[in-house]
Amino acid sequence: MERFTQHVGDNMISYLDQGIGDCVVLIHGFCGDHNYWKYIVPHLIKKNRVLTIDLRGHGHSSTPKDTCDITEMADDIAKVLQSLNIQRATLIGHSLGGYISLAFAEKYSDMLSGLALVHSTAYPDSNEAKENRDKGIENIKRSGIVPFVNELIPKLFANENVSELAYHVNEVKKIGYKTSDFGAIGALNAMKNRRDRNDILKNMRIPILLVAGREDNLLPIERVFSTENKMITQVVIENCGHMSMLEQPDILIKAIQDLIHRIEIKR
């Protein structure tokens, strides 16, 4: 499978480009990479062109020289699309990827056909969450990425799935180890400083999907379903934490396919 790169300013963004059809962009979460979507992509490329992008400081993408914010990470996505002459796309953002997708929607609404927030929220960090981001930054500075990832990853899965899906837990840890220290610190700061974007979510007039895990230890359902409008579909996945693409991939695939179908009907 060929991997492509695109220079965005001083950063090199790595991505996979597969399939033919209307474009769907899959954006992974914090300390992840394109491999998060390995069970999702084969189903989507049957009818769509699918880009799976490694965020700056993650996976095979380069580590930024300076700190960044969520909007700059959205700029990375836009510039990759523009380099490929892709006029419109559907963004599927997991966790951090959802924050980036909302920032993309705010700045590049004319490039957006549809949007999915998968275990993500339009709310900003609470004061407690900001304190935890700062603790994470200090832990990484002190001990590096490996112990940070070892502590983080099991929390991403529903409690009962940590042992049952031990293989996936370990694979996600290995993915996390590839995140550079500075890339993780930059992402933590970007998440901590992001603004409330419920206004963007509420006023969008394109098909939207919000996905929550019933047993998500990090993100309560009510923070995922932060607003309503007639374009929003809400899906709660049972026996699932923060990682439905690995915990319950068939259900997530169906939800994304339904979103794509709604986009086709609207068109």
Automatic annotation (TrEMBL):
Organism: Metabacillus malikii
The name this protein goes by in its record: Pimeloyl-ACP methyl ester carboxylesterase
Keyword annotations of the record: Hydrolase
Domain AB hydrolase-1 intervals: 24-123
Highest taxon above the source species: Bacteria
